[in-house]
TrEMBL record:
This is SH3b domain-containing protein. Keywords: Signal. Residues 1-31 form the signal peptide.
Length: 248
């Protein structure tokens, strides 16, 4: 190996180590409790900005970074504070995640803000940001009665927005027990031909859920019987006929 190639190899390893450290730092930052004020370098210029969040009424809040102010509103939620996250560890900027609390869990929201040195702009508003690890991806978990619905959002660097990555199916992976009544599983969501009739007292695995065409609750679920057959059932059938860990 030549001196030049050896030096390039060392440089590559150092770059990879730096990127790994950045990812770990992002994960550690995410674990912090929300704050109302902090001093942090958001635009990556090596200088820390003073960041302050001021909660308002009826969902209003304002975020000040230096002399720049962003005014936002989320439903009628109360702003609890912000955490600093790193959506994309390959570039020097970091983001603010404003946490707001609604009257019920379904109304909780987080607002992702980015500061470019001159202005604060919104990248997106989600119900939750479960994972922000610095790879340009934000994962969101929302409660669907007996399972967590995981959605993926990717940062569009050109548009400076989070873009939803739609899935045809959503993984569930929850097992339940059929109560005292047998019910059929359909071949497809539009073909009512029975694939199987589940036996009372048998185990069924809720494998996946069909993503709704529009925003709203999931209506159809793909089930696996104890005999290894797959078929579809509506949510009301699961509520009525299967023991699952439903919770409000």
């Amino acid at each position: 190996m030549t001196v030049r190639s050896h030096a390039m190899s060392i440089a590559r390893r150092q770059k990879m180590c730096a990127f790994t450290v950045a990812l770990l730092a992002a994960a550690q930052t995410w674990a912090l409790e929300p704050k109302l004020q902090d001093s942090v370098d958001l635009d990556g210029d090596g200088k820390k900005e003073q960041v302050t969040l001021e909660p308002g009424t009826e969902g209003h809040f304002s975020v000040r970074v230096g002399s720049t102010v962003y005014k936002g509103r989320v439903l009628t939620n109360e702003a609890q504070g912000f955490t600093v996250v790193d959506v994309d560890a390959s570039e020097p900027r970091k983001e603010l995640l404003v946490h707001t609390i609604g009257d019920v869990d379904e109304q909780h929201r987080v607002v992702l803000l980015r500061f470019d040195g001159k202005r604060l702009s919104e990248l997106g508003t989600l119900q939750e940001a479960t994972e922000v690890k610095g790879n340009g991806i934000v994962l969101e978990d929302t409660w669907e009665g007996f399972w967590n619905r995981r959605e993926k959002y990717v940062l569009d660097a050109r548009a400076q927005k989070l873009t939803h990555v739609r899935q045809e199916l959503l993984y569930v992976g929850i097992e339940g027990t059929v109560r005292s009544k047998s019910f059929p599983l359909q071949r497809t969501r539009t073909d009512t031909t029975p694939v199987a009739n589940v036996a009372p007292g048998s185990k069924v695995l809720v494998v996946a859920a069909a993503t709704p065409d529009k925003d709203g609750p999931v209506e159809w679920y793909l089930l696996k019987t104890s005999t290894g057959l797959l078929g579809w059932a509506r949510i009301q059938t699961l509520v009525d006929e299967v023991e699952l860990p439903f919770a409000g």
